[in-house]
Amino acid sequence: MTATASPRRVLTGITTTGTPHLGNYVGSIRAAVRASHEPGVQSFYFLADYHALIKCDEPARIQRSTLEIAASWLAAGLDPEHVTFYRQSDIPEIPELTWLLTCVTGKGLLNRAHAYKAMLDKNQAAGAEPDDGVTAGLFMYPVLMAADILMFRAHQVPVGRDQVQHIEMARDIAASYNHLYGEHLVQPAALIDDNVALLPGLDGRKMSKSYDNTIALFGPREQLRKQIMSIVTDSRAPGEPKDTEGSALYAIFRAFADDAEAAAFARAFADGIAWGDAKQQLFERIEHEIGPMRARYEHLMAHPEEVEAILRAGARKARAIATPFLRTLREAVGLRALQAAPQQAVTQPAGARKMALPSFKQYREPDGLFYFKLADASGAVLLQSTGFASPRDAGEAIKRLQTEGAAALDALRACLAAPAQADWPAVERALEQLRQAAATA
Ligand code: TRP
Known about the structure:
Blueprint: E1 8-15, H1 22-36, E2 41-48, H2 49-55, H3 59-75, E3 84-87, H4 93-102, H5 107-111, H6 114-125, H7 136-151, E4 156-158, H8 164-181, E5 189-191, H9 221-229, H10 248-256, H11 259-270, H12 275-302, H13 304-333, E6 359-364, E7 370-375, E8 381-385, H14 391-404, E9 416-417, H15 424-440
Parallel strand pairs: 1-2, 2-3, 4-5
Antiparallel strand pairs: 6-7, 7-8, 8-9
The chain binds tryptophan.
């Protein structure tokens, strides 16, 4: 095995309470599926069913929505071989990490969450108790979300603007943990795509389940046609020029069309196309994109066992990362075997506490060449070099890894080997620890 570049990790979750509509497709599914094919990106998509429990107490709906969302993403082209696609509740490490994070999260931080504050305001306006109807689940929502993100050391989290505060909280929570227990957690950044269209719904307001103005993504073809025919327009007659500005019909078309198609549609508006004809064109344009995916969606909905198998395979992939990482995180806080050597002196003043560090060792083999290996704090070998002609060359490679961290892995690929089944995340973590230590020394 040779070292590979450390890829950018992108992760996002979808709460399993609803049925995907066209707005979800344009706003997240389509962009995510495209992004997942970009080279150098490692994508994690998951069904946030623990989050769903916070909002929904109907078991059948949770189950149905999980199937519908999974089938929609797969039908839209998500390749589960290429990405890690899993169900949150299949990863027992998530609630376990949630607890570790809960213990480093200030209650005051959670008090400031927008969703929680909105409940307090609503209750105050209604003259009710401040916490009326607030479950501890709602209050803890940001910690669970931080666990989702931090577990996979995601660099970027594509979300809507309403979720940005949660990503900031995940950063704060990661910083608290790292401050106390060493640099284990990666600080994520929110990724907001301003090019993604906010799709209007049937009545011209933002398409949303709460306005009951949605167009189903994978309903039967005839339902799609009917829903499009019911989009609200003004009362201009055929032959009268029509405005694209402020037209929901045009905006939805725009979200599916390329520039040339959109320009032609705008010309038809100026030329006075009848609303019925414009709707028919919109239907055909959407059907052109969605139609070919529908058969796959219907197949998956009829075969939930196939979706189940895909999600379980995804969970195995996810847990291959989560299980060893959680072990590290547990050990770092002191949940570890009693015979294990304590890694930090409790007497050290806070702030000056030091983690035991991974280390490089240089050595010479009978072949006359110079080698090095990287071992973690407990001495387990994480990485081995190939042979260098001189000790200076080996030393230089070490120096780069120490100062540049995981970023240097790519450049040094040719002179690195690793023990069978190398734990690359552990290698990255070790290098990151060393880099930080070098930077603060
Ligand atoms: N809270 C997100 C939403 O409502 C869903 C979600 C849960 C999520 N966990 C996540 C999104 C982790 C990104 C990362 O949209």
